[in-house]
């Protein structure tokens, strides 16, 4: 039970960290402008926030399920793959931690899709779901590192192609869910909340990078060298 809670909390935190990193936060702010279109109707604003969260979650779960299920469905090698994922987790955590500290650059991709889908979504509240899916697919360097470098190996090692990616997806939309309430209450509080998130991101990302490096070293020593 303790391990399950730790894994769930870790997946949510990875999502939250993704959401407050500069590039994903910018897409979430863009989503807030979409939610703000329904500010005159608080129910619609909240529904847009929920649908946006659902869209992001479905996108991440679909990608993770395809990747992880394809690996684990190979019965003959699934146990080996899980063992390899467990061994690879340590070095990957170190690499992701170094990336979070900004030591190594990572490429971004998918940005054009997000802009096109934002136009297609239009003004209907139901467009929030495809918008969330599009923004989820617009991986930035940090989100790509966290999703493919940390969440996928973690979910593969624990044979969790649905639960952990779903929690990660919810975590990535936390700002929009919170901001949906603020947008309904008044735009004046939106700017201050955004600035608070920017301040949190300044220390959260490097702090998480250090934690990832330490955890990666620990997992490497334990899983590969069997020293712990």
Q: What can be said about this structure in brief?
A:
The protein is mostly helical and 228 residues long. Helices cover 82% and strands 0% of the residues.
Describe what this molecule looks like in 3D.
With 228 residues, the chain is mainly alpha-helical. It has one domain (14-223). It has ten helices and no strands. 42% of the residues are buried.
Which terms summarize this structure?
about 230 residues, mainly alpha, about 80% helix, globular
Written as H for each helix and E for each strand, in order along the chain, the element string is HHHHHHHHHH
Helix and strand content put the structural class at mainly alpha
Q: What is the mean predicted local confidence, pLDDT?
A: 74
Distance separating the two termini:
23 Å
Low-pLDDT sequence parts: none
Let me know the number of strands.
0
Shape: globular
Number of helical elements:
10
Main pleated-sheet profile:
none
Radius of gyration: 18 Å
> What percentage of amino acids are in beta strands?
under 5%
């Amino acid at each position: 039970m303790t391990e399950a809670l730790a894994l769930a909390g870790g997946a949510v935190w990875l999502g939250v960290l993704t959401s407050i990193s500069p590039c994903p936060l910018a897409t979430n702010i863009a989503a807030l402008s979409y939610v703000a279109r329904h500010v005159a109707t608080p129910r619609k604003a909240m529904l847009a926030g929920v649908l946006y969260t659902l869209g992001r979650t479905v996108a991440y779960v679909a990608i993770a399920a395809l990747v992880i299920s394809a690996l684990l469905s190979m019965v003959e090698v699934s146990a080996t793959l899980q063992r390899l994922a467990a061994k690879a987790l340590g070095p990957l955590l170190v690499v992701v931690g170094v990336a979070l500290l900004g030591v190594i650059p990572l490429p971004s991709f998918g940005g054009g899709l997000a802009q096109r889908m934002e136009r297609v979504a239009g003004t209907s509240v139901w467009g929030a779901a495809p918008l969330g899916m599009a923004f989820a697919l617009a991986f930035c360097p940090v989100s790509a590192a966290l999703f493919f470098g940390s969440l996928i190996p973690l979910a593969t090692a624990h044979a969790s192609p649905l639960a952990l990616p779903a929690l990660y997806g919810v975590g990535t939309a936390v700002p929009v869910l919170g901001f949906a309430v603020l947008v309904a209450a008044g735009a004046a509080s939106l700017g201050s909340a955004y600035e608070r998130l920017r301040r949190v991101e300044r220390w959260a990302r490097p702090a998480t990078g250090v934690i990832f490096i330490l955890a990666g070293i620990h997992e490497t020593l334990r899983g590969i060298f069997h020293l712990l």
